[in-house]
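FW: tagging you since you asked about this chain on Friday. Here's the raw sequence from the shared folder, copied in full. Didn't touch anything.
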Amino acid sequence: MSTQHPHARVPDRLLTDPEREARWRARFDAARVSVPDWALDAPDRNIYVSNASGVWEVYAWDRTADTHRRVTDRPNGTLHATVTPDGRWIWWFNDTDGDEFGAWVREPFTAALEGSGAGPAEGTDGNAAEGGESAATTVFPDLGNGYPAGLALGHQVIALGVSTDDGSSLYAHRDGTTTRFYSHEQDADVSALSRDERLLAIGHSEHGDSRHPAVRVLACADGSDFHTVAEKWDGEGKGLAALAFSPRRGDPRLLVQHERRGREELLIWDVESDTETEIELDLPGEVVGDWYLDAEALLIAHFHRGRSELYRYEPASGSLTSLDTPSGRIGGAGARPDGSVEYAWSDAAHPPLIRTREVDGTDQVLLTPPGERPPGSLPVSDVFVDGPGGRIHALVSRPDPAVAPDGPVPTVFNLHGGPHAADEDRFSAYRAVWLDAGFAVVEVNYRGSTGYGSAWRDSIEGRPGLTELEDVAAVYDRVVADGLADPDRCVVAGASWGGYLTLLALGTQPTRWAAGVAGVPVADYVAAYEDEMEPLRAFDRALFGGSPTDVPDVYERCSPLTYVDTVRAPVLVLAGDNDPRCPIRQIENYLDRLAARGLDYEFYRYDAGHGSLVTAETITQVATEVHFAMRRVGLA
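HL: got it, structure written out here
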């Protein structure tokens, strides 16, 4: 269910060309699937998520029988799920209407597949437990609800984290007893459990900076004694993340991501001997990794300049071998017991596929969703611009000449969220609809983006929002000077942090923009801090240098509400009633100020959280956004 401001317009059709209209809708309607996750000791029992039903939900796949079945069926969808190592149980996170606040539930894997022989994401509804009873049951009802803060499932040990307004609590369950083994007002999470279930790694920010956490390893063989085995913190401004223990029983090696040399790299830490080996790779970008299941090699994902690729690395010999994945974006990958690698791949022109690369180098499609393949789109090109903080990387797409003539064209600056994320050479149905509508699309990996080194990511500290917009302005000037963008018809748009930057841009750069489209934004930062989920408060304290009480001038200087009286361009704001990240009250505060000024704005309000997992709702929102912008620049 959605409600709109009386002035909002939701078009029945976005484009006058029927072929282009059908094409953009088909990109969103087409079924997609994620890379499957499998049970460690029952690798033929898999789960994945798919939008095949029109809502993103969890599916189970028994490879032995080649049966697929939908596990969850909730109005606003389900994304977070895992399967126990023995393959008996599927766990999924049960929140309310997208508010991210809830509890873990579980149901039997076999019940989810009983009687189903359908193909990928085509089965009937699951949710029937063994014996035909209703399936999903809350795992630890006595813990109450909270925001998820990590989950590690073993045969004997279960560890999970819960975040509330009081901070973080971490629990372990063993031999029928549940113990809270950690509690702190600062952010913390469950990170990894060793294969023999003797060691548990957690991430914590007891030092007060959740953006640069430390790692602690605890003994957990005794259900009542969780003592520290080892601790690692690299100091201020240098985060550590525990990725995974070795999959070999009795092996205490932990794979850790670090940033000691100014970018995200890897090390292997033997936590019992407290010795470590930094992995130095001759690669220009940043890396993340996981183990092959024989523990003899690592699967490495390397990100550089908006593109990613896969490698196999053998610690004993130092050998690094490319898996020859095509240029584009790797959207998840995992190594199977036989050494094959399954991964998601796309680039800007080609929709995503789930592929498998065999040990002999053979590469083929693994999962084919039901229905027709979505239409492709146009490629992106790279632009590098000298900015006030260094060289800025942007991805630029120009509409087809049949849609837009030569010369400067209306241009949307689509600003990514995060802020610690990055725009990539990946397929985006959202980017594609703007191109079909006649806009050029510019995506800026501004300071604060990941993949360009720690200094680039952290340079927004103490001045968030304003720093990123300096980079957006530099790219704006470049694409105008190059003759791509029409300076009188430039639109700024984004969601989440990108929505925040959109509203801030409209107030601090009012002459640059013909319109703004802000999805689920931060609009009034002080009110947002008061209402948002505690993990984001911790993030904001680390980013701003404290709470609004500690550094009120920073929050005022960086809040869109401060500049609302200088906004000139019409703005569309979209917001979810149940959003714990960018809550609705602070958005209403901003819109009330616009209304008091009599400024031209539209408001689209919907009944979900921080975005929607329902395809039809997504299509409605996208049509509303693009049609709003088209009207403001003379394309409709």
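FW: The chain has a mean pLDDT of 94.
HL: agreed, and Residues 440 and 629 are 12 Å apart (CA to CA).
FW: great, closing this out.
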